[in-house]
Amino acid sequence: MEFFIDSADIEAIRELCSFLPIDGVTTNPTIITKSGKEPEQVFAELCEALTEDQKIIAQVVATDYEGILAEADKIASIRGGKNIVVKIPVTREGLRAIPVVKAKGISVLATGIYSPDQAFWAAKAGADYLAPYVNRMCNYGDGVGQVIELVQTLAQYGMEAKVCAASFKNVDQVHQLLAAGVPSITVNPDTIRDMVGHPGTAIAVDEFTANWEKAYGRTTL
Ligand code: G3P
Questions:
Q1: 73, HSE (Cβ side, Cα atoms, 13 Å)
Q2: pLDDT tens for residues 180-198?
Q3: Whose CA is nearest to atom 9 of ligand 1?
Q4: What is the pTM (predicted TM-score) of this model?
Q5: Are 31 and 6 in contact (CB under 8 A)?
Q6: Between 131 and which of 111, 194, 215, 216 could a Cys-Cys bridge form, CB atoms 3.0 to 4.6 Å apart?
């Protein structure tokens, strides 16, 4: 399975990649604007911070068909196209563009998905990844359950598109999708930190050290 960081915060990306086997980074226009940097600078820093084996997944901003195609080509040229995936929202124009972008040999992630039915059509259009916005879907119903159902629907039809679950506000949402076997997921840095850090672990380690030091007068083996 693939685990991505949903962020353009280079410091957070470097920090998490320094101790976790991260498969790449996903961004969107809002995430890039939050960096306070020019998009070209963000992409350059991502290329520098990540290895070529880690994917960079970046989104088109244009909303018209021609514009989406042009921006897909632009994104696909980042880092010579190595492990680059173009995010295209599942609007009518986006759904029309997906098979055309795919036919050029460019990997596509269909994004802005609020329902399993939108995801189904993006899969049928040839998208490699489908990004349902789990937390936002929870505003309308059982977002987690709908995404689990989507994974099953794709398997049922032998569709190759992989769900890349996105938009999380807490660890439990992530946990439920991992437990259901979601093939890929993108999570913001704070929620990733919450996944790996537990106060109980720190207390246990402090206790080991204190007991060892009391018995042997040192804190190493
Ligand atoms: O990858 C999609 C994601 O960035 C949307 O997340 O937190 O804006 O719902 P959010």
A1: 7
A2: 999 999 999 999 999 999 9
A3: 167
A4: 0.95
A5: yes
A6: 111
- Residue nearest atom 7 in ligand 1 by C-alpha distance: 167
Write the CA distances from 65 to 30, 39, 57, 109, 113, integer angstroms: 21, 21, 20, 16, 18
pLDDT in tens, 86-120: 999 999 999 999 999 999 999 999 999 999 999 99
Question: Among the atoms of ligand 1, which is closest to the Cα of residue 26?
Answer: 1
Region 14-36: what's the mean pLDDT? 97
Q: List the domain range (segments joined by +) for residue 94.
A: 2-196
Q: Best mutation site among 4, 6, 59 for ligand 1, i.e. most ligand atoms within 8 A of its Cβ? A: 6
The share of the chain scoring above pLDDT 90, in percent, equals: 100
Which residue of 129, 144, 167 sits with most ligand 1 atoms within 8 Å of its CB, as the best mutation to test the pocket? 167
Residue 110: CB atoms within 10 A of its CB come to 27
| Catalytic residue ranges | 87
Indicate which CATH number applies to the domain containing 55: 3.20.20.70
Would you say residue 221 lies in a domain?
Answer: no
In a domain, residue 162? The reply is: yes
